[in-house]
Task: structure prediction
Amino acid sequence: MQYDVIVIGSGPGGYVAAIRAAQLGLKTACIEKYSTFGGTCLNVGCIPSKALLDSSEHFHNATHTFKTHGINLDNLSVDFDQMLKRKDQVVSENTSGIAYLFKKNKIESYQGMGSFVDKNTIKIKKDDGTEQTITGKNVIIATGSKPASLPFLKIDKKRIISSTEALKLPEVPKHMILIGGGVIGLELGSVYARLGAKVSVVEYMDSIIPTMDKSLGRELLKVLKKLGMEFYLGHKVTGATVSGDEVTVTFDDPKGEKKELKGDYCLVAVGRVAYTDGLGLENIGITVEERGRKITVDEHLETKVKGVYAIGDVIRGAMLAHKAEEEGTLVAESIAGQKPHINYNLIPGVVYTWPEVASVGQTEEQLKEQGVKYKAGSFPFKASGRARASMDTDGFVKVLADAKTDEILGVHMIGPRAADMIAEAVVAMEYRASAEDVARMSHAHPTYTEAMREACLAATENRAIHI
Ligand code: FAD
Ligand code: NAD
Result:
């Protein structure tokens, strides 16, 4: 065999698996069909979306809050081409960073489409049509996911678009209609709402970000409505058609009455499906699950074929970059003979709107469903000195702790820098801290993190100091 490990796909699952395997002394190769490394996350996902979220938030603040801070600016305008250029630059710095890390770790990379000849032999077909094969003792499938659509809807990539096109539109839309009020819809919807577009969200469920703690969706809805976004919750999309530059989206309201919206772009953000096209899984006897087209794996992330593993978006669980990274590390370490473990309950979820939304552990709805007796403590940012100073007073931190032992079972927050603040909750929960443990630790003043301490105090005998 030429390699100890061959990784197919260079997203956060694949590149982390390759680096960890190389660190452990395994001879490693990584195959990527695109011309740059980093997968969905670096090229058309996490990184470019956050670059646009940051740029658009600067514009929003400059137009809406600077005056109150005592800063006057005249004739503000958006140079959208420059905004996209900066985003592309950020992407390029990150993708070339992976190329550097591969070199540093002596990982051999191949550009082309990888497919199984047998369980140890991978054929690589390059863009110019030439082919070569490589062999490895272990193969890690990290081929990720692609946008899902609806059976009655064709994403034409011009007017009816997925997140990939929404990250490189030729103009700021006048009216963007979003199908789906999940993470992608709300992040990219808020980018364009801040840049001046009218944004309408049609969501099938009766709340936005429906899988997170319900209190977060309720608060985020208020904030996004303030931003001017409009919502059609509990509405079922039935079709979308394009005529010239106009898109018409039709949907049924909760009573079954027909409605329609006209706009210039329709972003379809109804989830993602695992990507295994052209991988030759049939050559090694692996079939994909009917729902979501995912590859089935055991607790060691090994498929039914010994020595063939799968990680990240292509298997069950949350479709998150940091979840894929954990799994990449786990598989590399398992192959090297270690006994790693992932605590899936403690993988945080974040929505990068402003304020940010972040969550870890059990939601209140889950605890109720499981019949677990719990205490809840909340602290609103409007009572935080730091939040008042920065004018970021929307949102709260909510801590759920076991009624008897006080162990923290879930933390749900919406507020400034919640994406970074959730790390404290993850650490506390990994060490099985009680709410009182966290409440008794010093938190620098004035910081947003004091809200976490106060929420823990509130959960511990209702002892919050500042409310
Ligand atoms: P991917 O990143 O999808 O990488 C798979 C790679 O495999 C791709 O590069 C693909 O070209 C390659 N490939 C596929 N088949 C083959 C083949 N046969 N041969 C060779 N190469 C192949 N997650 C977060 O945690 N935080 C965020 O803020 C966030 N924001 C997002 C924003 C958007 C707009 C989107 C779309 C997603 C976002 N995600 C975010 C989700 C995140 O991008 C994914 O969960 C993550 O990229 C999954 O990593 P992966 O390694 O499993 O697959
Ligand atoms: P999602 O699952 O977050 O949201 C999809 C939404 O569409 C849901 O609220 C669902 O109820 C709704 N929906 C489904 N069918 C519908 C229909 N016919 N009509 C109206 N609404 C409908 O999916 P997404 O927003 O497309 O994101 C895909 C994946 O990418 C997610 O799994 C997420 O984990 C990942 N992602 C993560 C981040 C992040 O971590 N910040 C950012 C972007 C994407």
About this structure: The domain at 160-270 is CATH 3.50.50.60 (FAD/NAD(P)-binding domain).
